[in-house]
Amino acid sequence: MRFSVAIPLQRIVDGRYQYDFENFIAECQAAERAGFYAAVVGERRIGVTAYNTSPHILAAAALANTTRLGFAIMVVQLPLRDPVQVIQDAMVLNALYPGRFRLGVGAGYNEHAFKFLGVDLKDRGAAMESGLARINAFRDGEIEIDVGRGPVPAVDPAMGDCRPEVWVGAWAKAGVRRAARLADGWLPDPMRTGAVVAELAELYREECRRHDKTPRIGLLREAWLADTDAQAQAEYGPAVVQAHAEYFPRMQGGWKTAAGSESKPYDVRVDTWLKDMDEKQQLKLENLLEDRFLVGSVDTWMENLTRWIDAIRPEEFVLRFRFQGGPSPEATRKVIERVGREIIPQFR
pTM of the full predicted structure? Predict the structure, then answer.
């Protein structure tokens, strides 16, 4: 079992959003010392975010400032990018830092980003299919170009054997099937309960069997470790609720999801508290804890991790400890160190 950590580049300081590269690198280095497998960062093309528009550049900086830690982008919004450029950048990173870089791609969902970049949101499924096919063909050396002396591989031979893993982030059934067919692994989102992810995992494994692929699953969870559940909730609750109160309505298209809308992170059939939810300010930590977050004592962590391992069978947990608004980088590094001492050794 591997453990990775999702690290924000942005931080809110005195009410202002700013890049905090110093603490970003310090957190990567703390994760490396603690025995984490990789650091993870996402991409967002516009607006306020904990991510950034150029995750390949950030990956290069993180890899240069560590010696063993891997780095993963989860995820590049593939319909908004040229797939060959995306995989070329990934292959250069994996050539410079062999075996330490992993590319993640996803369809995206923010209609404003699609409009801003002149891409039709309704075409994103087709763009994912063609983009992944192009990425696979390029990294497998199947694309040739004629530069005047006959066909030659498009891949620069100077890079050597630099084929990086490509994972797909997806939560809708079509995306999960696509991950099984066209990628090396699947990363579901942190919004759905473990029980819902387990259902999607069965779909993913079934599709992998159909295509003679080995199923590989990473599970992204919000996480905080303390002496007691109450302490963990007190230390982590304000930041995670603030982040999700802003983030989830965009994913949800409004809090109240019609029953049967499988692409939405919440459903009133499971999350009965949605019936009384009108404003995002009403969101409470207790709404989000059950079977979603990894927040509490060592015993609580072990109970949840064991249940998810049995039900979902992931090979990796990707843990997000910090958001733009908190907790502090100093407190986060202490938790990372504690996870390295008290949790990770139990799964080696």
Answer: 0.92
